[in-house]
Amino acid sequence: MAVAEPVFPVKRGTNISHWLSQSSRRGAERAQFFTEKDVQFLAGVGFDHLRIPIDEEQMWDEAGAMEPEAFALLNSALDWCETHGLRAIVDLHILRSHHFNDEKRPLWTEPAAQERFFQCWRDLSSQLSKRSVDRVAYELMNEPVADDPNDWNRLVAKAVGEIRKLEPKRVLVIGSNRWQSTDTFDQLRVPAGDPNIMLSFHMYEPFALTHHQASWTGIRDYKGPVHYPGITVRAEDLEGLPEAVGRAMRSHVRHVDQEWIAQRLEKPLQVAKSLGLQLYCGEWGCYNKAPEADRLRWYRDVRALFEEHGIGWTTWDYKGGFAVVDGQGRPYQALIDTLLD
Questions:
Q1: pTM as predicted
Q2: Cα separation of 177 and 297, whole Å?
């Protein structure tokens, strides 16, 4: 099932995580973490675009004033992308009123928080609107998590309306509720008749493989084997484990292969086709504590599915626990080859 012709033609990219988002680095340390040399490297190995997460706390102070240094870095990154022939997606990743892993998310209930969200986009537009709509896209917000999917749909309608007053032709990336899950894709509503929208999902399934021993998850204490393809976690591997660990892992005892993953894609593919909109995977990746052979087999299978259906993608991430370079900045060649050969 092919999706619509791309309005923003991107195929293979990666996320520039932990730079202007999810990081305490500031000053020279932040500036040196990601430079033009990184963009040159990424273009050289074969990526065609970058997704650049940004956080409200880095880009704006608590009074809502734009932080000049952070915006200068963002603009520099977009300049580097232009120089080296890469497109870019600017992703508003975390708001003070919404973090995808927090229990309290006032964005859904407080009008002032929603107005602050809209103002973030007005400010971003004031900085970025002169950039070519063919080279830079905007992602409204990363991984919305609303108890009621219509809370997200209503916010989408209002945010798109605000941006369209300023930039009628800018490509806007919009994801599904609850961590951009494929399962909730049919609940997503976007403004009708706007062709400059790209629908986005994230792919981290099977979670027990892709987040094996990840410290921020509820399955972090399971140190036993995981497998792909096949039964991700075997029942016998849970024997003798502490009750809490076994309980957290039991739902992951299932057979997973490429066909199983393909079934996860059916809903977003159907929605994108019905709306005539481009479909995109803004994040997918496997944490580096999963066994390498299983990890690379998973990457190979998921990439093949994306290519079969014409889905552009960005891996999570460039530098980090899922990275295409190691902690010393050395290329992880086995993964690069799997992604880009």
A1: 0.97
A2: 28
